[in-house]
Design brief:
Length: 187
């Protein structure tokens, strides 16, 4: 079964890169399965990810494999601890979402009926250093009430009952960010 979990992480990592939601080393996905967090390894490239580049950690961040987890493992752990209803997290670096995080404070306006139904609200988390406990805890606090957040100057985090659900929520955030930006610029 862990093979299937790893295959899902590989599939959506490649899809995220293909759709322009992240580049190079940026971003990561995780799946919580049987008490283990499967997460992209540090330094791996999204569109080149293989099963052998998936780390496994517990809820304290202890490694359960020889693979070193993403530097954002703290974020994933903190979110899973607060949200018992989710089984997957997407953290990507979509360009429009990052740009609007520098132009807006508090939240990104919902721009489509789908975003309203599936996201309700898209808060913007004030800047905190990447990979820090401070970022992990602050982001998790916002995700306690919502399924998507934008981290200022950093990227998007979405959650779901499956990786598919978390991934597509990221697409909805980026669509809202792009539409808001184009509207504001009169394009």
């Amino acid at each position: 079964m862990s093979k299937l979990v790893k295959d899902m992480l590989v599939k959506y990592s490649k899809l995220a890169h293909e759709r322009g939601l992240t580049a190079a080393f940026g971003g990561n996905f995780s799946i919580l399965f049987n008490g283990t967090i499967f997460i992209k390894s540090t330094g791996s490239i999204m569109n080149e990810l293989t099963r052998t580049q998936i780390a496994m950690i517990d809820f304290e961040g202890n490694s359960l494999s020889s693979i070193r987890p993403s530097s954002e493992w703290k974020l994933h752990v903190e979110v899973y601890k607060l949200r018992k209803d989710i089984r997957a997290i997407a953290h990507l670096h979509p360009p429009y979402s990052i740009v609007v995080s520098t132009l807006l404070e508090e939240e990104l306006p919902i721009m489509t009926p789908e975003a309203e139904v599936y996201l309700k609200k898209i808060p913007i988390v004030p800047f905190k250093p990447a990979g820090s406990w401070e970022l992990a805890r602050e982001t998790a606090k916002y995700l306690e009430a919502y399924d998507a957040v934008i981290m200022e100057n950093h990227g998007v985090v979405t959650v779901g009952k499956s990786l598919r659900e978390a991934y597509y929520k990221t697409e909805l955030v980026e669509e809202s960010a792009k539409l808001w930006y184009l509207k504001e610029k009169g394009i």
